[in-house]
Amino acid sequence: MAEYRLAAPLSEEDVRALKVGDTVILDGIIFGIRDANLIRIFDGKVPSPVDLTGAACIHTAPNVRKVEGGYEKVCIGTTTSGRMDRFTPGLMGEYGVRAIIGKAGQYEASMEAMQRYGGVYLAIVGGAAAWETDKIEAIEEVWWEDLMPECIWKFRVKDFGPLIVAMDSHGNNLYFDIKKTAVDALPGVFERLGIS
């Protein structure tokens, strides 16, 4: 397993070098996305107001404070990614997104998109919102404020990580591997418990 420091936006070469189990620290720009803005883009067929080519996108609906000239961070945590699995193929194929940052992983549709387009899923440990917030230096822009807090957010980050490569562009999925290991261990567990 290797450790990488990458600057976002990311290239296909950056992403294809990553393998499940590697760790990544990100600097640069990441975009906050979530259900409402993704539904608007893909179900409502409203084009993204920002160029996402090479983007790292984090599943979040941040807690922010309105200030003169924009917003300041209060608490920016990550939400569970599974329910947004259906949007990942479009994000990567149509918009050129390279990385999804979230918790709890995604499924087959996302795995196929990551292999095809050169994408990766970077996992954050749940409950790490205070740490994430600290690594966000600034909220630089926001689009679709009518969806607050599920707008599209532009965050500038420094030392954002370590993130775990949980799904890579080679068809590997850490969540599926762990599930298989657990299922394979069940007969031995049942035997030790005297359950047949």
Give the SSE layout.
Layout: E1 3-8, H1 12-16, E2 23-33, H2 35-43, E3 56-59, E4 63-67, E5 70-75, H3 88-93, E6 99-102, H4 108-117, E7 120-123, H5 129-135, E8 136-143, E9 152-167, H6 174-193
Parallel strand pairs: 1-2, 2-3, 3-6, 6-7
Antiparallel strand pairs: 2-9, 4-5, 7-9, 8-9
Textual characterization of the structure:
This protein has 196 residues and is α/β, with parallel strands linked by helices. Helices cover 29% and strands 33% of the residues. The chain is built from six helices and nine strands. The strands form two sheets. A five-stranded mixed beta barrel has the order 2-3-6-7-9. A two-stranded antiparallel ribbon has the order 4-5. The mean pLDDT is 93.
In short:
This protein has helices spanning 12-16, 35-43, 88-93, 108-117, 129-135, 174-193; strands at residues 3-8, 23-33, 56-59, 63-67, 70-75, 99-102, 120-123, 136-143, 152-167. It is an alpha/beta fold and 196 residues long. β1, α1 (12-16) and β2 form a beta-alpha-beta unit.
Give keywords:
196 residues; fumarase; 5-stranded mixed beta barrel; 29% helix
Name of the CATH class: Alpha Beta
- CATH fold-level label: fumarase
Any idea what the CATH architecture is?
A: Alpha-Beta Barrel
Determine the N-to-C terminus distance: 39 Å
Number of helices: 6
The CATH superfamily is known as: Fe-S hydro-lyase, tartrate dehydratase beta-type, catalytic domain
Shape: globular
> Could you list the spans in which at least 5 consecutive residues all have pLDDT below 50?
none
